[in-house]
Amino acid sequence: MEYQNEFRVFFAAKSQNEALARIMTAAFLSQYDPTLSEITDIKTAVSEAVTNAIIHGYEEKSGDVELFCGYNDGKIYIEVADRGMGITDVGQAREPLYTSKPELERSGMGFTIMETFMEEVRVESKQGEGTRIYMEKTLTTE
Fold first, then answer.
1. 3.40.50.150, 3.30.565.10, 3.40.630.40, 3.40.50.300: which CATH number matches 5-138?
2. Where in 22-86 does DSSP place strands (E)?
3. What value does the mean pLDDT of the chain take?
4. How many angstroms separate the CA atoms of 85 and 25, rounded?
5. Active site residue 66
6. What predicted TM-score, i.e. pTM, was given to this entire model?
7. Is 6 one of the annotated active-site residues of the chain?
């Protein structure tokens, strides 16, 4: 797809960079006059996706997280990807309250939160190669 505007960045899979991803996404969104609710929803979804990549994708090992944001005709497209472990069973991982890390007191609501705040969420994952999450949301037009 060709976008009217876009950016792609890579950053270290470190928990402190989750805030960086939220800020970059919000700055990109601000150009399109979104509502405060839309900014909050999208930042929350990005936060969940990035956190999943860091905690589950790399399991405390080093690696990079990729963040892509694109805009086209009133719609925001976001991708968050890692080149980590991959998800064994995507269907199971998307179940509310499922977590592969109960010892970390994870809530298992990451995908549920993404699906609540975004119009579309797709997940592609391959064992040993990583995971890519695609999210879309139409912005309110006034």
1. 3.30.565.10
2. 64-72, 75-82
3. 89
4. 25
5. no
6. 0.89
7. no
